[in-house]
Structures are given as structure tokens and as C-alpha cells.
Write a structure and sequence with these properties.
Blueprint lengths: L5 H5 E5 L7 H9 L4 E8 L6 E9 L2 H11 L3 E2 L2 E2 L1 E4 L11 E5 L7 H8 L5 E8 L6 E9 L2 H11 L12 E4 L9 H7 L22 H7 L13 E6 L7 H8 L5 E8 L6 E9 L2 H11 L3 E2 L2 E2 L1 E4 L7
Antiparallel strand pairs: 1-3, 1-6, 2-3, 4-5, 7-9, 7-10, 8-9, 11-13, 11-16, 12-13, 14-15
Main location: other
Subcellular location: Cell projection, Axon; Cell projection, Dendrite; Cell projection, Growth cone; Perikaryon
Protein name: ELAV-like protein
Length: 314
């Protein structure tokens, strides 16, 4: 149950809205249940299209509760909407976002949720689709209501082979854009050992058996040219003029720990010159982001995404 302060009892998050639904339509749908104080449809900051979710705040908690019971699961066009309390951020719900890979390409979003729903309350989920073919990439994100639920799902489903599939799936926490570079990754790599260490990682390599590749990510990251010790630099080309840093956080954040983002702007107009950079901590996550976002359509542009090489762009 949501925490009982007043905001939490009146404020709802609505997921899986049809792309064509407007903010006014969202408001009028929920006004049918009771007095709506505010309704906000969340849109892409640059391209302006709906991101498929929004927030509705009722005047009375009883109406909010009734909206959940009457409107959750309602079919609108081809979507089944999801209505739940929009929980304020707190430690119990932080970092409850999972990254799932190795899924069967035929698995749909509802089937994905079916697989995970017994472990807790799913806030939203997303199967990544190849823009060109329209087929699943076998990768998805699921955000649970609470971190403990996400942990439970990892415990039961990581390494599990879904029915009808020959491959086990990988389920792990999706690193959070604002996480500090070392905390989560170090603890995962060192299997929860509590010792902190300064200095380069290479000296420990003998004591822990994992591939030199992963030592490299943690150490200098020097394996690819032009990647600084702070992480793996990704070059994004063909951004629209209105692109800003927030868009890069939104695009790359779900794949893993992002250290920083930068949009290159025209000195005179302050508009984006069409490219930007994102630095990510972990090589696999950076590679996955490139694989998933290269060729991604943002507004009317098709992005080109690659590892930055040392020559050419500063």
C-alpha cells in the first residue's frame, strides 16, 4: 500500500497510453471518476511526441482509489492502460529498474510482464525493438515498485530459461544515470566483498578470477582508442537542433551507468549542431546502448551511434 501522506493517496501514474492520446483526453477520461486537480501527459522534450505515460492528481483520495479499480486494465485502442499510485521517491523504491537480456525474440510485452508479475508490482516495462525490422532485440527493462521486488525477480529469474526457449535469460539491475561510478559496479564485480581499494585494479586480478576484459573496464579503459580513464565515450550523430542533455540521459540512462553527457552547440545560436557525446562506465553497457540506439529514430532523424575514436572529434 502507498505511504499514507496526502499526495501519495491522490497522485496516480498512468502507463501504456496510446501514442495519439492528448493531455485533454487523459484529463477527461479520469474526470469521469471524480474531480481531477491536474493531469500531465509526459512528452519527449525534443520531438514532442507522447512517451505513453502521464500523471493524474485527484482532489479526493477516494476518487483516486476508485480510478485505479475502474480504469486500470482498460483497453484504449490497441493498448491496455495501467493505473497505479505514483509513489514519491524513497529509498525502498529507488533503483528498482531491471535490465533483461537473452529474451526470445517472439516474446511480447504482456508475456514479459506475465513472467515477472508474481514478484511484485510492475510500474512499467519496455521491450526494445529493432527500428528497421520491428522485431524484438531480446532486451527489455522492467521497473518494479520496490527494490526488494526487483531483487526477488533477479533471484528467481536470472539464469532461468523461459518455456519454449533454449537460452537462459540474464536479469540484473539497470544502473541508474545518477549512480556514482564505482559503487554498484565494484560491488557486483567483487561479489559483495566489502573491502575498498584505491589504486589500479590490475594488482587484484590474480586473486579474483574474472576476465582481463572486465579488469580493463574498471582500470584505464585503455582498450579502445580515445577512451579516457573515466569511461567509454560514445559519439551520437544526427541529433535534431533542439536536442539537449536531458534527451541523452533519457536515451542512454536505461542501459547502465552514465558518467556524463554533452550536446555540441552552435556558438551563436546555442542550437545543437547535430552531435553529442555520452560517457558510460561499463563497456558491455556502452556496447549494448550503441547496438540498440544506432539507427534509432528520434523525431524525424535517424541517429548514428558509435564508440568515439581518438581522431576527428575533440
Amino acid at each position: 500500500l502507498p505511504p499514507m501522506d496526502d499526495d501519495a493517496r491522490t497522485n496516480l501514474i498512468v502507463n501504456y497510453l496510446p501514442q495519439t492520446m492528448s493531455q485533454d483526453e487523459l484529463r477527461s477520461l479520469f474526470s469521469s471518476v471524480g474531480d481531477v486537480e491536474s493531469a500531465k501527459l509526459i512528452r519527449d522534450k525534443v520531438a514532442g511526441h507522447s512517451l505513453g505515460y502521464g500523471f493524474v492528481n485527484f482532489v479526493n483520495p477516494s476518487d483516486a482509489e476508485r480510478a485505479i479499480s475502474t480504469l486500470n486494465g482498460l483497453r484504449l485502442q490497441s493498448k491496455t492502460i495501467k493505473v497505479s499510485y505514483a509513489r514519491p521517491s524513497s529509498d525502498t523504491i529507488k533503483d528498482a529498474n531491471l535490465y533483461i537480456s537473452g529474451l526470445p525474440r517472439t516474446l511480447s510485452q504482456p508475456e514479459l510482464e506475465d513472467m515477472f508479475t508474481r514478484y511484485g508490482h510492475i510500474i512499467n516495462s519496455r521491450v526494445l525493438v529493432d527500428q528497421a525490422s520491428g522485431l524484438s532485440r531480446g532486451v527489455a527493462f522492467i521497473r518494479f515498485d520496490k527494490r526488494a521486488e526487483a531483487e526477488d525477480a533477479i533471484k528467481h529469474l536470472n539464469g532461468h530459461t523461459p518455456p519454449g526457449s533454449s537460452e537462459p535469460i540474464t536479469v540484473k539491475f539497470a544502473a541508474n544515470p545518477n549512480q556514482t561510478r564505482n559503487s554498484q559496479m565494484m560491488s557486483q564485480m567483487y561479489h559483495g566483498q566489502s573491502r575498498r581499494f584505491g589504486g589500479p585494479v590490475h594488482h587484484q586480478a590474480q586473486r579474483f578470477r574474472f576476465s582481463p576484459m572486465s579488469v580493463d573496464h574498471l582500470g584505464s579503459g585503455g582498450g579502445a582508442s580515445g577512451n579516457s580513464p573515466s569511461g567509454w565515450c560514445i559519439f551520437i550523430y544526427n541529433l535534431g537542433q533542439e536536442a539537449d542533455e536531458a534527451v541523452l540521459w533519457q536515451l542512454f540512462g536505461p542501459f547502465g551507468a552514465v558518467v556524463n553527457v554533452k550536446v555540441i552547440r552552435d556558438f551563436n545560436t546555442n542550437k545543437c549542431k547535430g552531435f553529442g557525446f555520452v560517457t558510460m562506465t561499463n563497456y558491455e553497457e556502452a556496447a549494448m546502448a550503441i547496438h540498440s540506439l544506432n539507427g534509432y529514430r528520434l523525431g524525424d532523424k535517424v541517429l548514428q551511434v558509435s564508440f568515439k575514436t581518438s581522431k576527428g572529434h575533440k
